[in-house]
Design brief:
Elements (H helix, E strand, L loop, with lengths): L2 H24 L8 H4 L3 H4 L13 E8 L3 H14 L3 E8 L1 H9 L6 E3 L3 H9 L3 E17 L20 E4 L4 H12 L8 E3 L2 H9 L5 E5 H7 L4 E4 L7 E9 L5 H12 L1 H9 L6
Parallel strand pairs: 1-2, 1-3, 5-6, 5-7
Antiparallel strand pairs: 3-9, 4-7, 4-8, 4-9
Helix pairs in contact: 1-10, 4-11, 5-6
């Protein structure tokens, strides 16, 4: 390994250790399941400086993030920029598998945030990350319905009714893989009208009236607001996923990327994630 790479890895390792300490402090808070129950004033907790142990970010930070993080990361990006003048966070939201493919094909990313461990492991195995990924949140599944749940869907078993139009994520996407596990746990066989490559595809089909219901992350139901209804899935049939985040090997702004990850793990970042329904890591 040449000296340049040693210095680069050492710098990122220090940043990740700092982030891990902050994350450990923030993980004592109980998870919130909805924005209303979060009860946290983001404005009141936002810091005026970056997390201890990191350097002030300079310039643009490109973040490739799972589509289920869209709303939460958009707000976190604005909060991060406000706390760190001169920083500019640029997002590319898509299915985790698609993002992995883009990064492996050379797409420029400073940070990768996955909606599951398996897609992160693909990048690790390919040698495309620096340091050990940090889990910043967890998520569970929920049935998404049209507003008011006009079809009266109450359980996963109801999704097998032949008169319902159901859409699911493809099993190549984290939401699809987890939905398959949940349906298997409930001993339910569903024939979906379509298989979407990302969770937001399911949300769009249901909120535009193209489908009666689907299975998405609980946070996606919250993000949809009045455009959708939600039906909780019992813990015995549900599945939980991690959201690991890391700096990529080809990052052009290693310091900025590390600072953004530290912010995600900080009390301010965790408060915003909780506001959007994400569970504590």
């Amino acid at each position: 390994m040449n000296p340049h790479h040693r210095l680069r890895i050492a710098a990122v390792t220090v940043a990740f250790l700092a982030a891990a300490v902050v994350a450990a402090c923030g993980s004592e808070a109980k998870p919130r399941s909805t924005a209303a129950s979060a009860g946290v004033s983001v404005a009141a907790t936002a810091p005026t400086t970056v997390a201890p142990g990191t350097t002030a970010p300079i310039g643009a930070i490109t973040v490739f993030a799972a589509s289920s993080l869209t709303e939460a990361f958009t707000e976190i990006g604005s909060s991060f920029e406000a706390a760190n003048p001169g920083a500019k966070v640029r997002f590319n939201f898509a299915g985790s598998g698609d993002l992995v493919a883009q990064i492996r094909q050379g797409a420029p990313a400073d940070v990768f945030a996955s909606a599951d461990d398996s897609n992160m492991n693909k990048l690790i195995d390919a040698g495309e990350v620096v340091g050990k990924p940090i889990v910043v949140a967890k998520n569970t599944l929920e049935i998404i319905t049209e507003p008011g749940n006009p079809k009266g869907i109450a359980t996963l078993g109801d999704l097998a009714k032949p008169d319902l139009i159901i859409v699911l994520c493809a099993e190549t996407a984290p939401c699809g893989k987890l939905a398959a596990q949940a349906l298997a746990a409930a001993s339910v066989a569903v024939t979906p009208k379509s298989l979407e490559d990302k969770v937001k595809g399911v949300v769009v089909k249901v909120t535009t009236g193209e489908a009666d219901a689907g299975i998405v992350f609980a946070t996606d139901v919250i993000a949809a607001g009045a455009r959708a209804g939600g039906v909780e899935i019992p813990a015995s049939q549900n599945a939980v996923t991690n959201y690991p985040v890391t700096v990529t090997k080809e990052a052009t702004n290693v310091g900025g990327g590390s600072s953004f990850i530290s912010y995600l793990a900080s009390p301010s970042g965790q408060a915003i994630l909780a506001k959007f329904g994400f569970l504590a890591p």
